[in-house]
Task: structure prediction
Amino acid sequence: MYANGINSFGQVVGSYTGATVNGFAYKNGKYQTIIFPGATTQTEANGINDNGIIVGWYVGCSSSCAAYAFASRNGKYISFSYPGAYGTFADGINASGQIVGAYQLVDGSFHGFTTSPISAADFERPGCCEIGPWSDHQLF
Result:
């Protein structure tokens, strides 16, 4: 189990390995598994801000086994990738909602990115998001 990010409320996000690699969120003694809907082998949660927006990345093998970045809030997921990238990895999110991370091109080179701000309202737009399972589990 790896803790990757924490916000000022003490909410922690990270990943753990089972049959696949899954993300998790931890708050008040309970954890929640985070799996991007349709992810095939891996979902990693890397950052969380005080608005409860979690960012990370997942592997989806619909047409190629590329990595895609995601933002999630209350079981709703937004997927995004850098144009032309083989893999996009969201690593953190600040209080303003700007996401930072890296993308990898087919030649193997890595580059950094910063997004425009995202907010809780972005997850409420009609037709916005993938909906995933959302349940709390006792960790200890």
User: Anything to note?
Assistant: The two ends are 14 Å apart (CA to CA).
